[in-house]
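Reopening this ticket.

The earlier resolution said the output was attached, but the attachment link was broken on my side. Pasting everything inline this time so it's all in one place.
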Amino acid sequence: VCASLLLERRVIFVADNLSTLSKCGHAVVATLYPFTWQHTYIPVLPASMIDIVCSPTPFLIGILSCSLTHLQDLPIEEVLIVDLCADKFLQKVSDEDEILPHKLQAALVQILEERNEILFQERCYTQGDVTLDSLVSEAFVRFFVEIVGHYSLHMHVTEKGERVFQREPFRKSHTSRSVRHFLDIFMETQMFAGFIQDRELRKSGVKGLFEVRALEYLETIPESEPSGMNKILRSLGNKMKFLQKK
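Inline output:
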């Protein structure tokens, strides 16, 4: 689901109740941080407006299970449909498993599958109240840091003081072929464009968890080689300490 949204495709959530649709919709949008979903997002679509799913533009839409029969009668193609209650895909585009860099995806999946065990160990280690939300957020942030955390190395400041992003040097600088392939596609999305534009315009810099982790990432690798490929996520997958109070 995350992979499909990152490439700004069309995704439909199906569930038996409004609460599940709303919570899952908001949660998956939140996992995209530091990127922002730029397209149509309707947590719960009224049955009377079901035809909206025929739109050719990207969207994330939730519908109740009672509308599923009507949905299946509509001419929709290349749409990812997820049954949240049955925990299965009702329709796939077919390449969802090939979108994200394999090693990073595997590490992220491992963390999510072992989240309860990791959470228990972190609470014992830190004696703090580490939450599941913070663990999941941290995992996704570090996933994105591995992919685009070196962007600041390719922000050129002109004589006028304007910050200009150097696209090709940024993409080519990653030593992972699979990440470069992903960036070929991802860099064409509105999400990535918005991410870069925001950082080009903010001369004072951007603050937030992503920027903190990106700085930590850059401090651990040579400036000429912005790819400690999978190092951070691998350490998370091995259940090493990673939650730090800032």
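Reporter confirms the inline version is readable. The domain at 1-91 is CATH 3.40.50.11500 (Rossmann fold). The longest strand covers residues 10-15.
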